Amino acid sequence: MVTRKAEEINKLKEELRQKLPPYSSDDVYSEEEDEEIIDSKRNSKGKSTSGVHEEINSFRYPAILLIGDAGVGKSTLGNWLLGYHGDNGPFETKASCDPVTLEPQTSLIEINDRKYNLIDTPGLFDVKDDARSEIALTKLANTINHCSYGIQAIIFVVRKAFGKEIDRRIQAIQGFLGEKSLDHMVIAFTHVNMDQTMDRRIMKQSFSSRMIKFLDRIDNRWIVSPHPDLFNLDDDIVYTNVYEAKDIIDSFPEAYTTEMFNKVRSAREEAEETARREERIRSCEEELEKIRREIDRAGRESAKREVENHCFSLDTIVILESGEKIEMSKVKIGDKIACDVYNSGGISKLKYSEVYLIAHVDKHKETEFLKVEYTKPDGMTGN
Fold this sequence. Notes:
membrane, 3 domains, alpha/beta, plastid, AIG1 family-domain-containing protein, 17% strand, single chain, metal-binding, Rossmann fold, two-stranded antiparallel sheet
């Protein structure tokens, strides 16, 4: 963490002591009152003034977005940034992993004489409810589209004990907000122990290779949100972390715009539609292939049955051993007729079989045949 001299920290404390008294329900006010209150309460650089709105209609200042998992501590960080204790400020919090913020909330904050709308968003990744995650993304998209003055910073709040799922979270955020959003992103770690909060070097030792790679991508813009059970508002490290966050936020030269977001969203929706169309085509092709296989199978079985149960009609043309072609009705017992083809020295030849029995059947009635065994004068037997 950036080292600050004791006198500088004391000066920061004195500045924030001149701000609003501890938060109460009387501090909630409408957007129309924001400007009047923020002007009357502003006394020094970096001081914050807050007002929470139940519904978000429009913003008159650049936005600072707090995004992340449900119950990860976005509201707590928002309260710290506004100059309140993490558990006692305009943004509602509670000591559990269940989501508290179900609708986007906003509060005015001033950093270096510039006003911003600090926006606390619903949890994006609710592990207990995928449908609620989809709703949260829809609400976030609606919120972004109301940020007509752009988004100054996107604070991605992450629980310190992140695992392999952090890759999926990062990919989801990039996919939703676009690559350009990383140029405006800050990582804020929550649920951090005292040693890691006090010493940035100790905190860095807990980073996985995946997190290190991602932090390199965003120029190592990361902060720690002090655990509200471990630190008080007057603790030096709280001021240090809060002002480190504000310095980063103020350093972005330009805002992430709704135009950037909608360009990404249009591309994403087009890609999703293409994927759905390809899936429908693939499904249809699989169904057609299944039907073709079924037809082929049925055809082969039908042909097999026809061969096994085949009877020649009287006008069928057959080839005698002499090469003469005659109708089946003229065949006599003792004639030899072609019954197969075989290969001899690369030449196809006909194979002949002697006719021992001719039976006439009715095609419309089931006919039963007896097995006939015979012995030829030369001693050859057959059936």
